[in-house]
Every structure is written in C-alpha cells, then in structure tokens.
Predict the 3D structure of the following.
Amino acid sequence: MKNNTILWLFSAMLFGACSQAEPQAPAPEEEPSQPVDIDSQSQFTQLFWEDNFDGDQLDETVWWIQNTDSYNNELQCYKHNNGNVTMGVEPVSGNRCLVITAKRDTCSHGRYITSGKVST
C-alpha cells in the first residue's frame, strides 16, 4: 500500500508538471487606428534659438568655451586661448562654421593633447 501511495504521488507530480501551460509570447502592439500627422504637431516646428557662426569670433555671451582638465579620464584637456576653438569656412559650402582643433601641446596631469569644448 505504501508503494502504491508513493507511485500515485509521483504520477500526480509528473502529470501536474507536464500539464502546466507554456509561457505565451506577448501580444503584438496594436497599430494606431489613424496615422499620425507630424506636420500637425506645431510644438515641434518652432525654432527658438540658433547660431549660424557668421561672425569672426564665437559669441561668448551664448557659448561657454571650457578651460578645464579632461573628463572621464580622456587623454586630452580643454584650453580656451590656444586656438583650439576658432571660426572658419566650411570648404564645400563656403559657409562660416565653428572649428574645434586638437593639438599636440602640454597640459596638466601629463597629458599632451589639447582640444576645445564649448557648451551653451
């Protein structure tokens, strides 16, 4: 009788494990009922600021030229008055543009590359 009870429990566990439902893939997302008209979203079409870099120098009233050590263990440092950040002419279009140049030069912490970094 004891063996029959053990056999019955084992069979119930085996069938119970086999009868579990397999996980189902998630249902695909429904497509929108109507297409979205991007042109109608006017909040994304209004320009609120731009700089065309059309002067002889970078406008430091709106741009901050950083003069700091490196970030994230970079092998460069950022210098303000080393000619790393200048204005130039884009060779194909002829438009004025911002030019950021890396140079071999000494800076702190044994680094030998300087570059420019600007932010607004």
Q: What stands out?
A: The CA atoms of residues 6 and 12 lie 10 Å apart.
